[in-house]
Design a protein that fits this description.
The chain is mainly α. It is built from 14 helices and no strands. Helix 7 runs antiparallel to helix 8 and helix 13 packs antiparallel against helix 14. It is globular.
């Protein structure tokens, strides 16, 4: 196991270097630069009458006077020293900017993930046990409708219904303007109210997908010979589904769990923009639009590392759910 993990980590490091190198080359090839974004953004730096010497000095300040390969190795050298550099489009280091957004993203994504799993597993088991019945078909119809409903449409309708019409829930943001003046219970309640709509939008598509995923794998497993043997021995249907069938359908489910790890931190750009949620998705979009190379690369490094870590975690969990798998 240890040799396998070390080998996978070595391959992951090489993969990470290739990914970040390709991404850095692509963003440097994009039209525009941090300098053009700054000049177009207003303020003193946007004065179109700046001299050639000032322009060249600003290019040197942003590191644009070097070829992208040299720029990438400068960035990589800083990463190896633990320095992600400072952002170009806003004050502060890249590490601090990412750290300030992680809590809001995790609040949204982890809550959504827990709800999706808690609801999709019993729904998937129910759909398997009642396969072909009218209630099961009705459940599938609702799930298909949810899966096909665009998030931005659902978000706008929910805002109209619960904020404009009913005035029950806040429209956007993480907290209210008087959040600091509230009691501890009042702060928790205010945070809960602000989370309801974005968490709902974040959850419903995952719920529909996970339920269908579990049912599809369960229907394949319940056709196996050992399930028929368990039924012949008089094992109850609940125990067959939860102990025998579900346990042996965990391998594809574990793969899905491993792939959700980067999604926990990447956020949802559309949802965060609609609800003005200060998460990682909105930060990533702003960094790309402003050509903030260090911030983009810091986020790419985080997301790529989590993707590779999630795949490694899924491979290790295979051996936990299926003893037949060996890493030798």
């Amino acid at each position: 196991m240890l040799i396998y993990i070390v080998r996978r980590l070595f391959i992951s490091v090489i993969t990470l270097v290739l990914i970040t190198g390709c991404i850095y080359g692509l963003i440097r090839a994009m039209p525009g630069s941090p300098l053009t974004a700054l000049l177009a953004g207003g303020g003193e730096a946007s004065d179109k009458s700046i001299s050639t010497q000032q322009y060249e000095r600003m290019k040197e300040q942003f590191g644009l006077n070097k070829h992208w390969t040299l720029g990438y190795f400068d960035w990589l050298g800083g990463v190896l020293k633990g320095d992600l550099q400072n952002a170009l489009s806003r004050p502060g280091s890249v590490a601090k900017l990412i750290g300030d957004r992680i809590a809001a993203t995790l609040l949204l994504s982890v809550t959504s993930l827990i709800l999706a799993y808690l609801l999709s597993i019993p729904l998937g088991l129910y759909s398997t046990a009642r396969n072909g019945t009218i209630p099961e078909r009705g459940t599938n119809l609702v799930l298909y409708m949810l899966y096909s409903l665009p998030v931005f449409v659902a978000a706008l309708y929910l805002q109209i219904l619960f904020h404009v019409k009913l005035e029950w829930l806040p429209l956007y943001g993480v907290t209210s303007s008087n959040y600091a003046e509230l009691s501890l219970w009042g702060k928790a309640w205010d945070l809960f109210l602000h989370c309801v709509l974005p968490v709902t939008c974040f959850t419903y598509t995952s719920l529909a997908y996970y339920t269908r995923f579990i049912k599809a794998n369960m229907l394949e497993v319940v056709q196996q010979d050992y399930i028929r043997t368990a039924k012949a021995k008089g094992v109850g249907p609940f125990k067959i589904l939860t102990v025998h069938a579900f346990r042996n359908s965990l391998i594809p489910f574990v793969t899905l769990i491993g792939l959700t790890l980067p999604a926990l931190f990447s956020g949802a750009i559309i949802i965060e923009k609609i609800f003005s949620w200060p998460g990682m998705g909105a930060l990533f979009l702003d960094a790309i639009s402003q050509r903030d190379y260090p911030l983009v690369m810091g986020l790419v490094l985080l997301f790529s590392s989590l993707t590779l870590l999630g795949q490694l975690l899924a491979d290790i969990l295979y051996g936990v759910v299926d003893p037949r798998i060996s890493y030798s």
